[in-house]
Amino acid sequence: VFCSCSYDATTHFETTCNDIKDIYKRMAGTAFDFENMKRKQNDVFGEAEQ
């Protein structure tokens, strides 16, 4: 069971996002790699594969 540290009323969910990243790191053993989520040059939404 993974529990969050806390949820509070900060603006833009700053601490909530940090808490989610912390839970992911504790679950997966490594930090989430946001670079893998970036679109690649040939990723085009709605286009058929060529």
From TrEMBL:
Gene name, Swiss-Prot/TrEMBL: GDI1
GO biological process: small GTPase-mediated signal transduction
SUPFAM superfamilies linked to this entry: FAD/NAD(P)-binding domain
Pfam families recorded: GDI
Family according to the record: Belongs to the Rab GDI family.
Protein name (Swiss-Prot/TrEMBL): GDP dissociation inhibitor 1
MF-aspect GO terms: GDP-dissociation inhibitor activity; GTPase activator activity
Keywords: GTPase activation
InterPro entries: FAD/NAD-bd_sf, GDP_dissociation_inhibitor
Keyword 4Fe-4S: no
Entry keyword Acetylation: no
